[in-house]
Amino acid sequence: MQEAKSQRRYQKFLRTFEKYKLLILDDFGAKIYDHEECRDLLELAERRYNKTSTIFVSQLPDSKWYELFTDPTDADAFLDRIIHNSYSLPLDSKVSLREIMAKQKLKMIDS
What we know:
This protein has helices at residues 2-6, 10-19, 35-48, 72-82, 97-110; strands at residues 22-25, 53-56. Strand 1 (22-25), helix 3 (35-48) and strand 2 form a beta-alpha-beta unit. With 111 residues, it is mostly helical. The chain has a two-stranded parallel ribbon with strand order 1-2. The protein has five helices and two strands, in the order ααβαβαα. 49% of the residues lie in helices and 7% in strands. The radius of gyration is 18 Å and the shape is globular.
């Protein structure tokens, strides 16, 4: 988004993401979002709201997402667009997927 802004093609960039039927944002919440990033996420959420699907993949439970935003007003606006009209699928596993896959591969090798 920042690159699109610097090249003055931000609006075109956002229109592109409006057209995708599904957008997956992986590693959401891997960092704290500053004011400008919050506004960008809000703009993206507003453009897609009730039109297309967006999946947020995060290591954090959605109950902790509010803390990711430096501005509480931005956090309220953004989370209002995505939390209240969504499905949450928490995965609570004590074993990582990598560990499960490694064990399966070892079984295949030993067989």
